[in-house]
Amino acid sequence: MIQHTVVSSSLDSSITPFHKKLNSSLKKVSISVLQINLGKRCNLACTHCHVEASPKRTEELSPEICDRLIELIYKFPQIQIVDLTGGAPEMLYGFKPIVEAAKANGKQVIVRSNLTIYFEPEFGDIPDYCAQHQLRIVASLPCYLEDNVDKMRGAGVYDASIRALQWLNRLGYGQDPNLILDLVYNPSLPNSEKFSLAPNQVNLENDYKKFLQEHFGIHFNHLLTITNLPVGRTKLYLERRKLYRDYLKFLESNFNESTIAHLMCRNELSIDYLGNVYDCDFNQMENLPATTRDGEKLTVAKLLAAGTLDLIEEIRTASYCYGCTAGCGSSCGGALI
């Protein structure tokens, strides 16, 4: 696995506040993406998980919030994409009702899958369900090599992921234009100040496709390269090794202003399992809620009452935003430029 590695050599450990790095405040544009975190329960506990999901977590969507989210989907035709995440979204309350509401309203639905969920009791119907409803699957496979994947995600995860991808291929995923299958790459977590940004997305996609086709006959559509933001377990990992501030400084040193126009937070609302609204999934995990011009915290109920999704003017930022703006940029849709 080829990686772009840079040694952090700065003696200045101070981090420039992200809002001061920008020439102007970071503004929302019209909302077109609704990303919903259905909860934190998952069958895996990956070392880099910014949600800190695991089988021990119990948080998930309630019937009341599920109903409000479905009402939101019906009420606002400007929503083009409903993006479902977790935890393992497929195992959480509200997954199928929200999928079916979104599809009934002509939305593209993304499900962010760990793939191994298909082999858990009661979830063997999920691949066929996804194909039936033409869901776009964005699946975590942080490397095409077994050792690297199992180190990040747990023993046996690579083998299960390969079998899951082959299963999806048999259903037409990665080949039928209506059945999109994308994979997600994350760099390995650092053991020293030799920090890495993701390699060139196009070149790495070619490497993935060549390896997976030659060894397993697997086809997929796109590879999405995503930077490890210092949030959740990645932040805890870095703090234990006294690398947290150095990593932030590394990300800042690779700040690329041309990524700003393409940041996912600009046209997205991130909703948690309690119905609270955030600018992005990372702000959600750091408990940095979205607010109106008057500083009022937003919820799904308040959006419904106001009759608009476009109540936010300025996006709330933090130091970890450098992760989305470093190098070629990073988002839930991969590299930005």
UniProtKB/TrEMBL annotation:
It comes from the Bacteria. InterPro entries: Aldolase_TIM, ArsS-like_C, rSAM, rSAM_ArsS-like, rSAM_sf. Residues 36-173 form the Radical SAM core domain. NCBIfam families: rSAM_SeCys. It comes from [Phormidium ambiguum] IAM M-71. The lineage of its organism: Bacteria, Bacillati, Cyanobacteriota, Cyanophyceae, Oscillatoriophycideae. SUPFAM superfamilies: Radical SAM enzymes. This is Radical SAM protein. Pfam families: DUF3641, Radical_SAM. GO terms for molecular function: catalytic activity; iron-sulfur cluster binding; metal ion binding.
